[in-house]
Amino acid sequence: MLPDAAWRGRAGLRRIVAALGADAVKIVGGAVRDTLLGLPVTDIDLATPLLPQEVTRRLEAADIKVIPTGIAHGTVTAIASGDHHEITTLRRDVETDGRRATIAFADDWREDAARRDFTINALYADPLTGAVDDWFGGLADLQAGCVRFIGDAATRIAEDYLRILRFYRFAARFGDGNLEPVSHAAVTAARQSLKSLSRERIADELTKILSLPDPRAIVGQMAADGIFAVILPELDPGFATTLDRLLANESAAAAAPASLRRLAALLPADAGIADQVASRLRLSTRQRKHLSAISAYRHDARPVRQLAHAIGIEAARDARLLGENERDAAAAVAALDGWTVPQLPVRGGDIVARGIAAGPEVARILQGVEAQWVAEDYPDAARVAELVDQMIGRSSD
Fold first, then answer.
1. Are 79 and 196 contained in the same domain?
2. Domain total for the chain?
3. Which of 341, 356, 378 lies at the terminal end of a domain, its last residue?
4. Fewer CB atoms near the end CB (10 Å): N or C, the chain?
5. Number of H helices, E strands in the chain
6. What are 147-197's pLDDT values in tens digits?
7. What is the arithmetic mean of pLDDT over 1-18?
8. 2 and 135 belong to one structural domain
9. pLDDT over 90 (residue 394)
C-alpha cells in the first residue's frame, strides 16, 4: 500500500484522475518507488489504457490543458492547477534494436509493466486507494535493496543498451551494495553493445551517475567490469585516488556535487585529453571549455583569485577542489564565495592621455600593469595609478 504522501492530495492530480476516471489511470514508476522508500517525489507519471486521443478529449472536457509532448509514443502532458503530469497510454514492444523501440498501444497493465527495465520500476499504484500492483517482485526487491531486470536480463538489455548504464546507476541509488548476480553478469557480457548508443545518451547517463552523492563504489565497479574501457578509454589509472580526494574536498568545502568536476577526476590532468572526451561525448562548448580548464590547471599553484582571473571563478574553484588537500580546498572555495573578478580600472585611453603614443607600447604597459595588479590581489584605483606611473617611467628609461 502506498503511504499517504502529500503529493497524493494535490488538486491538479485529483482533477486529472477525476477527468480520466479512477479505474482508467494509475501512478507508475519512480513516484511509487520513491514514495515507498520515503524519498522526495518530483515527477508523478501516470499510465492509462485510454488512447491518447481519448485522454485528450476527456481532459479538455474538464478544462485541463493538454500538450502532445510525445503523442507518437502515447504520451501527453496535462497541466491542472499548476501541476504538470505526463500521461502515457499502456504499450507493448513490437520491435527493438537496442537503441529504440517500435511500440503498439495496449490495454493490459501487466504487459505494459513487462516492457520496463527493473522490477522496482514496474510498480503501479491506484491514485485513490494507494493499492500497489506488483507483477514481478518489485516490492520485495525494493525492501531488499536488490536491483534486477524484469524477466530475462539479456533480453531486457537487448531492447535498450542504455539499460547497462542504468543498472549501475540504480544499483548505486537503491541497492544494498551487492549487485544482483544474474543482472550483473548480463550487463558485463553486453558492455561492448554500448558502442551502438548515441554519445549524447551515454553522456547523459554518465552525468547522472557522477552526480550521485557518492559515486565512488559504483564507478570503481564499472571500471573493474570494463565499462569504462568501452565508454571512457581515457580513464586515468589513478582515478580512484583523485576521486577520493575530490569527495573529501567537496565535503570539507560544502561544495555541491558537480558531474564535470567528477568527470575531470576520472581523467589525466591533460587539457587535450579532456577536450577529446568532451568532443566525443558531445558536450556543449561551455562544458568542453570548463572540463579542459579544470583538467589543465588543477595543479596550478598560484593564489586562487589569480587563477580565477585567468580561467574564471567556477573553473578555478573546481581546479582547487581537484588538486588541493581538504584545508586548502576549503579555503580556496571560501576565498571565491561571493567574489567576482574585478575589472582593471585603467584603459588604453588613460595611457595615451599620459603622453604615450597609441600603439603596441600602450598594450605592453597595460599588460604589465594588469600582471602586477593581479599579483597584488587587485588593489584599488590609486594603487593602479602608481603602477601606471611606474610602467611609463620604465618605458621612458
1. no
2. 4
3. 341
4. C
5. 21, 9
6. 999 999 999 999 999 999 999 999 999 999 999 999 999 999 999 999 999
7. 93
8. yes
9. no
Is the pLDDT at 350 greater than 80? The verdict is: no
| C-alpha dist (Å) from residue 105 to 47, 51, 77, 109 | 12, 8, 17, 11
Q: Are 61 and 29 in contact (CB under 8 A)?
A: no
Residue pair 192/230 in contact (Cβ under 8 Å)? The answer is yes
| Distance in angstroms (rounded) separating the CA atoms of residues 303 and 265 | 21
What is the percent of the chain where pLDDT is above 90?
A: 77
Whether residue 270 sits in one domain with residue 254:
yes
Same domain, 26 and 89: yes
* Same domain assignment for residues 309 and 276: yes
pLDDT at 397 over 60: no
With a CB cutoff of 8 Å and minimum separation 6, the contacts of 182 are: 148, 149, 153
Q: Which CATH number is 198's domain given?
A: 1.10.110
36 shares a domain with 117: yes
Round the CA-based radius of gyration of the chain to a whole number and report it.
28
Please determine, for residue 396, whether its predicted confidence score (pLDDT) is greater than 70: no
Q: Inform me whether the pLDDT recorded for 259 exceeds 90.
A: yes
Report long-range pairs for 279-285 (Cβ below 8 Å, ≥24 apart).
280/199, 281/199, 281/200, 281/202, 281/203, 281/206, 282/199, 282/200, 282/203, 283/203
Which residues, other chains included, contact 280 with Cβ-Cβ below 8 Å and sequence gap of 6+? 199
SS3 content of the chain, % helix, strand, coil (to 5): 55, 10, 30
Sign of CA dihedral 351, 357, 362, 364: negative
Domain residues for the domain of 362 are 348-396
Give yes or no: residues 124 and 135 share one domain: yes
Length of the chain: 397
Order of strands, sheet of 65-70, starting from the edge strand that comes earlier in the sequence: 65-70, 75-80, 83-89, 45-48, 26-28, 123-125, 132-134
Q: What are the tens digits of pLDDT across the range 288-336?
A: 999 999 999 999 989 999 999 999 999 999 999 998 789 999 999 999 9
Buried b (16+ CB within 10 A) or exposed e, 203-225: bebbbbbbebeebbebbebbbeb
Residues 16 and 126 placed together within one structural domain of the fold: yes
CB 59 within 8 A of CB 19: yes
CATH number at residue 111: 3.30.460.10
